[in-house]
Amino acid sequence: MPKFSFPNFACRRFGRRRLRQVVLKETEVVHEGGGNGEASAQASASGEEAVTQEHFNRATAANPKDGTNNREKSLEVTKELLAVVPADEDQYRAQEPENSGTDDVSNGDSNHLEEFLQAAKLTFAGAKTVSSVLPFPGSGVVFDVLSGIIDFVQTKKGNDESNESLRTWILELQRLLPSNASDWSDEYRSIIDDFKSDVVKQLKPCATWESKSLAYKFIFAKIDEEKLSALSGCVSKAVQKFHVRLDIENARSNTQVQQSLRVVHNKVNEEALRRVIDQLPKLAAYDSNRTRELIPCHPGTCEVILKEVKTWAMAEIGGKQPQVMWLCGRAGTGKSTIATTIASWADKEKHFLGGNYFFSRDVEGLSSCSHVIPTIAYHLSEHLSEHNPLFNEAVRSRLVARNGHVLNQKIEEQFENLIREPLRLTYNPRVPRERTLLVIDGLDECDDQRKLKDLINLLLSMLSPTNAHIRILLVSRPEKHIEDALSSEKGLHPHVVRHNVEDFVTTSDVEEYLRLELFKIGKADWPSGDDFNSLAESCGQLFVYASTVINFIREETALRNHKKSLQILLSVRLSSEGHGAANAYRRLDELYLQILRVAVGDADEVDSEAMIRFRKALGTIALSRNPLSVSSIAHLIGVEEEEIWTILEFLRSVIIVPPQASEDRKNPPRFYHPSLPEFLMDGGRCKDKRFFIAAPLMEAYLFQRCVDIVIKGSTGIVNEDYIPTMYYVCWFWGYHLGKVEYETEQVMTKLGEFVRRHLLKWIRFARMLFRLCDPLYGCMEAAQNWVVCDRQCKC
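Structure for NACHT domain-containing protein, as requested:
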C-alpha cells in the first residue's frame, strides 16, 4: 500500500497555494536533516500539526464565556473545512497535482480511511468538548459533520444501504430543525436540545479521545459496516423520539392557541352583546331601579290571588291548565304589585322566571313594543344558559348579528329570529324542558294598540305541545283592544284564563297594608280606631287610595303636620257620596282634588297666570313622550326653572319629585300612579276646572313650542343645558302634532311656516344631533298623516 504523503493530501484538500507553503517548509526540514526519509516524514508531521494548530487557534480564539461568538467561530471554521472536502473520488483525482508519483495509484480503502481521518482531525481539532464543536441551539454544525461522515467515509460496498438510510435521516433533520431557534419557545428549545444531545451520545462510540498538551482531539475510529448501521439506527430512533415529542408539543400548543382564540372570540362576542344589550330598556325588569319603584305585596296581603297565580304557574307541564293567564283590574287595584310579587317569587324562590317586561308610560322606552321581544329573548337565554346552552348561544348569536340589526326589525321578525326559531332548533323530545314563566305587566300602557295586538298574537302562537313548559302571565287593565287580542271567534282564546283582581282583593288586604304603613310612620296610639276604620272604609279595594293617603300623611310641611293631614283626608270621606267599591274611584277623585287644593289654595282663578302655568307644568309631565327633567320642562313651556320647583313642592304625595339640591335634580318628576293624570284630563271627573287639562289643546301647545324651539335652535347657538330640550323637540314635534285631534288656526299657521322656511334646517340639525334618520321619518310621517286626516274630516 502506498505510503501516505501529507503534501499530496494537503494539495488535494487545501489547494496549491497552501501546498507551496507546506512544500517550502518540508524542503527546509529536508535540507536541515540531510535529505533522508525520516526527516521528510517529520517535516510532514510538523506541517500537519501547524495547519491543525492554526484552525485550533481560530476555533478557540473567542471568549469561552461568550457562547454566541464561540458558536459563530466554530461554525465558520467547520464549514470552511467541510467545504474543501471533495464529494467523490473523481473530484479527489481532479484536484491531484499532475506529477503525483506513486500517490496517484493509491485508491484502496485504507487510503480513503486515512484521508478521512486526517480531515476529521482537522475538523474537530481543538474541541475541548463535543458541544463546543456542536454549538447549541443552532443545528447547522451537527448536520454538516454528519453529512461529511456520509460523503467521505468510503468503507465496504455493504455500507451503501446504511449510508443512504443515514443520509435520508440527516436531510430530514436539516429540514425540520431551524437554523436559528432563538425565537422558539422554551418547550421547543428543550425538545431540540434533548434531540441534539441524543445525537452527540451516538457519536461518542464512534470516537476516541487523545490528550496532548492541554488540547483534545476528537478522532473518529475506523468506521465499519456494523458501526455505520448502528449509527444510522440510533439517529433513526432519535428522530422518531423527536417526532413524537414534537407532535405532542404541537398538539399542546395548538390546544393553547385554540383556547386563546376561543377566549378572544368570546370576549369579542361579549363586547358585541353588551353593545346590543345597552340599547334595550334598562328599567324593564321587575327589580330595576326605577324612580317609581316596583314593590311587592306586603306580607299578609293579596294572599288569595297570589295563591291562585302560583298554583297555575306550578301546574303539571302538558296538563289541562291554560298556558296564559290574563290578570286584569281597574286602576289602583294593585295589579303591578301582584305581578312584581309573582316575578320575584318565580325568580328567587322557584328559579323558573324566564323573562319579564313591565310597561310604563313615565319611563323612557317602556311605552313601546319595539324591544319587548329582544328583552324577553335575552332574559330567556340567560335563564336557560345552564339547562339549554344551545338556545342561549342561538339567541346571543342572533342578537349580535349585523351589529344588532334585529333590534330594528319588525316584531314579527324579532319573534321568529329570537324566540320561535331557537326554541324549534333546540327541541329534543327525549329531553324534558325546564318550567319557564314569562311575566308582562302594564299592557295598557303600551302606546301603540296595533303593535300590542300583534305582540299578543305572537305570544299566543308560541303555545304548542313542544312548548308546553312555558307559562305566560299578562297583567293589564280590562281594556277592549287587549281583550280582543286575547279572544277568538268563540270567546276567550282556549289557552287563556282570565282573572279579575277585584274578585280576589278584599278590603281586609287594603286594611292590612294601611295598618303596616301607618305603623312605619311611628306615631304611638295614632290614629284612633275610629279614624283608622274611616280611612280603611274610604280606601275600599283601592290600594292606590291607601298609598296616596300614606304619602300625604308622611309628607309633613310647615303648614300641616300628621294630625292636620289626617283631618284633611277624613273630610274627603265625609264629603263623598255613597260607599263601597262602586264609589271608590269617586272618592279617589275627591282625594286628588283635595290634595291639589291644599297645594295651590283657593285664591287663584282658572285663567290666572299661576293656574295656567300650573296646568302647563302638570300637562307637560303627563303628555311628554319621554320623561323630562324640571329644567327641560321649564325650557319647553318657557318659564323659569324655579317656578316649576315651586309648583311641585306641595305635590310630593302624588308626584315623585327629585331632590332640588343634588345631582338627582336632573331626574324627571313622575306621577306616583297613572290614575292622577287620567283624572286631570277627564273633564267629567275633574270638577274643579282650575286643574282640568284639555289634552288636545295641550298637545297643540306642546307642538307649537317644539317648533319654536327647533327654529331657534337650528338657526343659532345652543347652550349646553338646552341640549336635552333640543333633543326632545327635534324628535317628538311630530308626535305631539299627531295627537292634535282637530285643526286650529295656530297649528296650521305654525306647521306651514315650519315646512316652508325651516324644514331643511331642522333636517340638517337633527341629523347631526341623532346620527340617524328614524326620528326624521317619524316626524314627517306623523305630519303627513295629520294633514291627510284633517282634510278627510273636512270633506
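The chain has 30 helices and eleven strands.
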